[in-house]
């Protein structure tokens, strides 16, 4: 059996590959990457490295050739670009006659009003149209996404948010990676949807955990969208990124990530890594 992971040199993809290599022979694993020179370490370990560029779908057809089980990790970029890239990748998988597609989607993708949802909705629909057995890994939110807020607290700043009382199912990126690896290498996952959410917390509750880890009180500053955008600008965030950050806060505020599920536990065979433990590690890594 041949398994292939796209985006294998990215943050999530590299973790998925490392997890797979703990239980899967390297000869059964292939990766598709835009820059093969960045995957030489994997090639040296016996993993087959293939060139696959989401902007050049013809490369994906050859990259996916002979693949039994494929994990498509969602790409970065604006919504229009991602929809084009993802649907091209799905078409390439169909042409290559891939036997199974797992895809890293977004929680509640088909109903979500979050600005990030259109590419995931379009990709899920494209996969369904192929008739290929699938698994949609609907990821909530990486706890690592909050690193800048944690760094701000370390520097003495308050925890700034425009998300109100909206809750998020934060979990460690490694937990998402292990769940994806479990689906790709496991059995019984055909035509499944997994809503992968950790324990639901508000911004205040997460900030409280950060404070407990640090041994100090963390003040939370709830602001409106305009104020949040201005604070991000003053913090040096590039102008083109600010609308995206504001939209994320809006989505959280409106409940887009407030999805409760025990699917993580089903795939991991355990509870998600405790938030406190992940934050401790993040802080240790930051202060080294």
Structure summary:
The protein has 12 helices and 11 strands. It is α/β, with parallel strands linked by helices and 288 residues long.
Describe the structure.
The protein is α/β, with parallel strands linked by helices and 288 residues long. The chain is 44% helix and 16% strand. It has 12 helices and 11 strands. The protein has helices at residues 11-20, 40-44, 57-63, 79-95, 117-130, 147-154, 173-185, 203-214, 225-234, 242-253, 263-268, 275-286, and strands at 3-6, 29-33, 48-51, 69-72, 100-106, 134-139, 141-142, 159-161, 170-171, 192-196, 220-222. It has a 7-stranded parallel sheet, sandwiched between helices. α1 (11-20) links the parallel β1 (3-6) and β2 (29-33). α3 packs parallel to α4. The mean pLDDT is 96.
List the helices and strands and how they pair.
Elements: E1 3-6, H1 11-20, E2 29-33, H2 40-44, E3 48-51, H3 57-63, E4 69-72, H4 79-95, E5 100-106, H5 117-130, E6 134-139, E7 141-142, H6 147-154, E8 159-161, E9 170-171, H7 173-185, E10 192-196, H8 203-214, E11 220-222, H9 225-234, H10 242-253, H11 263-268, H12 275-286
Helix pairs in contact: 1-7, 3-4, 4-5, 8-12, 9-10
């Amino acid at each position: 059996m041949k398994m292939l992971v796209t985006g294998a040199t990215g943050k999530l993809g590299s973790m998925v590959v490392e997890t797979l290599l703990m239980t899967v022979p390297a000869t059964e694993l292939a990766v598709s990457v835009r820059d093969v020179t960045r995957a030489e370490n994997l090639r040296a370990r016996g993993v087959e490295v293939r060139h696959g560029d989401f902007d050049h779908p013809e490369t994906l057809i050859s990259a996916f050739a002979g693949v039994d089980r494929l994990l498509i990790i969602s790409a970065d970029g604006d919504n229009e670009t991602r929809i084009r890239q993802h649907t091209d990748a799905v078409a390439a998988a169909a042409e290559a006659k891939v036997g199974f597609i797992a895809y890293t989607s977004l929680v509640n993708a088909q109903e979500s009003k979050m600005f990030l949802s259109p590419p995931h909705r379009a990709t899920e629909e494209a996969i369904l149209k192929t008739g290929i057995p699938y698994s949609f890994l609907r990821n909530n939110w990486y706890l690592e996404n909050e690193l800048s807020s944690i760094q701000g607290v370390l520097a003495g700043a308050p925890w700034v948010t425009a998300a109100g009382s909206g809750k998020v199912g934060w979990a460690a990126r490694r937990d998402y990676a292990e769940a994806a690896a479990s689906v790709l290498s496991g059995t019984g996952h055909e035509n499944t949807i997994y809503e992968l959410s950790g324990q639901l917390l508000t911004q205040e509750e997460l900030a409280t955990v950060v404070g407990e880890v640090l041994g100090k009180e963390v003040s939370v500053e709830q602001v409106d969208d305009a104020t949040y955008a201005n604070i991000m600008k003053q913090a040096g965030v590039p102008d083109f990124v600010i609308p995206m950050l504001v939209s994320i806060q809006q989505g959280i505020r409106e409940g887009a990530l407030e999805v409760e599920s025990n699917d993580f536990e089903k795939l991991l065979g355990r509870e998600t890594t405790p938030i406190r433990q992940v934050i401790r590690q993040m802080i240790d890594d930051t202060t080294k």
